[in-house]
């Protein structure tokens, strides 16, 4: 096992943008005065997710959906393996984490879309109820996700949060990505700014 580059720049920057925008969206959710900030935070999240869907197809090896989306059987086997002395180590996202990521991306997009209707004063109370329900589900999923990250870090004795900052994890040399791809971060930022602006209209 070596210290190898696993997460490229767009994955890392996109992730921490999601965390920041999510926190801002929650903090501003109850205030009428912060309505614009709330809409911009939601738009930013939508932009990051739209970019991530594209990056999941054309991005680096461990960023691609094809590399980490596995069947439910693999996810269950991984969760069962966590209870053993030597849980299987995965270089990219583990099979259970892969499902959590799909749920996080899907709920973020649905929550942002329903929020857009509310901000446009379209859809009435059903849109408000839907937005509140989806956002609460997203919060639940985030808490589950963070618990899973902490559990995985303990099980593998590897700091996964630090890896999301540095990009480096433990793994065989052949599993490393060749470059961190900094330039597509500009496309990510463009998507986020464009969506935030559009949501604020
Ligand atoms: C402080 C809170 C959070 C921490 C500490 C955290 C930590 C992490 C870590 C360590 C990973 C990599 C997991 C792995 O090694 O397989 C990850 C992935 C991910 N997290 Fe979080 N997370 C947090 C909050 C969030 C939030 C709020 C969202 C979305 C609303 C989110 C969405 C994601 C997504 C989509 C991925 C997959 C990254 C990718 O492949 O692009 N996370 N998170």
Can you write the helix and strand succession as a string?
EHHHHHHHEH
List of distinct ligands in this structure: protoporphyrin IX containing FE
Anisotropy-based shape: globular
What is the strand arrangement across the widest sheet?
1-2
The overall pLDDT, averaged over residues, is 96
Overall tally of domains: 1
Question: Could you estimate the helical fraction of the residues in percent?
Answer: 55-70%
Instruction: Evaluate the radius of gyration.
Output: 18 Å
What class would the helix/strand composition place it in?
A: mainly alpha
Descriptive report:
- It is a single chain.
- Helices cover 69% and strands 4% of the residues.
- With 201 residues, it is mostly helical.
- It has one domain.
- The protein has a two-stranded antiparallel sheet.
- The longest helix is centred in the C-terminal third of the chain and has 33 residues.
- The radius of gyration is 18 Å and the shape is globular.
- The model has no long low-confidence stretch (mean pLDDT 96).
- Bound molecules: protoporphyrin IX containing FE (HEM).
List keywords for this structure.
about 200 residues, mainly alpha, two-stranded antiparallel ribbon, 8 helices, globular, binds protoporphyrin IX containing FE
């Amino acid at each position: 096992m070596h210290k190898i580059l696993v997460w490229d720049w767009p994955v890392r920057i996109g992730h921490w943008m999601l965390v920041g925008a999510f926190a801002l969206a929650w903090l501003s959710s109850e205030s009428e005065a912060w309505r614009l900030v709330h809409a911009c935070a939601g738009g930013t999240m939508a932009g990051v997710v739209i970019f991530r869907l594209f990056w999941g197809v054309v991005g680096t090896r461990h960023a691609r959906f094809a590399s980490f989306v596995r069947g439910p059987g693999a996810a269950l086997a991984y969760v069962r393996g966590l209870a053993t002395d030597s849980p299987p180590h995965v270089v990219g996202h583990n099979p259970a984490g892969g499902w959590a990521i799909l749920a996080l991306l899907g709920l973020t997009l649905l929550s942002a879309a329903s929020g857009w209707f509310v901000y446009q004063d379209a859809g009435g109370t059903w849109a408000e109820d839907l937005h509140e329900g989806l956002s609460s589900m997203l919060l639940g999923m985030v808490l589950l996700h963070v618990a899973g990250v902490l559990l995985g870090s303990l099980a593998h004795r590897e700091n996964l949060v630090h890896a999301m900052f540095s990009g480096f994890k433990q793994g065989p040399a052949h599993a490393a990505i060749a470059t961190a791809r900094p330039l597509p971060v500009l496309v990510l930022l463009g998507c986020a700014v464009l969506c935030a602006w559009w949501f604020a209209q």
